Amino acid sequence: MPPDTPPSFDDRWLVEAVRLHEAAHGPLDDAAACVAARNGAATPEGRIVERARHLGEATGLRRACAAWAGRMRLAGGVLLALMLAGGVGAGLAVAGDGGRPINVVWALGGLLGLHALGLVLWLAGFFLAGATPAGIGAAWSGLAARFAGGAPEAPRALTGLLRQGGLLRWWLGSVTHATWSAALAGALVGLTASFLLRSHVFVWETTLLSPGFFVDFVAWSGWLPARLGFPVPDAATVAASGASALADEAARRAWAWWLVGCVALYGLVPRVLLWLVCALRLAAGRRALRLDLALPAYAALAARLAPASERIGVTDAAPGRIVASQVDAGHRFSGAPTLVGIELRGDRPWPPALAAGVSVGGFGFVLGSLANLIALRLARVPHGLAEFHRISLPFLLVCTASALPLRLG
Q1: How far apart are CA 162 and CA 216, in angstroms?
Q2: Assuming Cys at both sites, which of 105, 155, 186, 393 could form a disulfide with 88, CB separation 3.0 to 4.6 Å?
Q3: Which pLDDT does position 145 carry in this prediction?
Q4: How many domains are contained in the chain?
Q5: Residue 394 belongs to what domain range?
């Protein structure tokens, strides 16, 4: 039987699509596909995959799934482009036209507030057992199902297969973090472009909070950017910026770099890292994914595709030489018990040590019985005399010890 062609993730996706198609529309005519599966694969999963390949070509499911996947890649590219453009617009809107001072708290909250809320919700949905996936990834998945076109089974089969392998949350997470990364990258581009091409001043405003709160907030939020080389306003600059916008060039640059550093390190970098984790975990899971043959549909299909018989051919190599054994027809055996070995492996010692002491008719001694002498003669075991007594004498002692209480009683 020829070896299996290793099934790919797309092959297993097609298997699930065929299963859903048959569940909705009834069994397909798979006589030829079953014959090809039995002849083309050696494992239960391989046979199921081979059957799905033939049925997918015959029904057009393979082409429909591939077309849907292409549309989804195009839709994903459009979504990333829109998020990037929206991020650029958000960055320019927060910076303004330079005619008014930038309220640093409003600017930072406007650029990172929705991102932080979405990240908290995603983490809660990711780690809570049984939680329904939420976020941009789940919305995109729902939208993709509406545009399945001629392959309504394609999105359901994909999500079902990913759910079987525990990969659905990693897939939706990769979509979510990729779109957020595009949006935050756009915001960073728009903000930086505005700082490069326009003159801005910065203030913070409050009615209830004390200046010390903003000094501590800037020091806390600027700790990581400062460690990576971003200029951060000092306490005096922060305190002075509450009364009026500072025209000092160094102060304006420090505020601009602080804002850029916070958006990059608390917004873009975490999203990119999370996208990498989800994408790598998804890629590894796709390679390791196997069909769950314990599912009733797959179990029944595997049993139906199993061949009634299989020719395995020669399994053992031919021996280097054949040793001919014969028994002298003229030899007369006694009535003693005889131990016979048939087709023994070459690494198995023969006769076993027990054969040297099977008889205790001579009180455990080899000379006590003619049968013992004949057995040792036929066995031709190295050190046979010692082997015989190693077995017979302890056995005789046990028998004697067991019979002694009966004798005394």
Answers
A1: 46
A2: 186
A3: 62
A4: 2
A5: 353-408
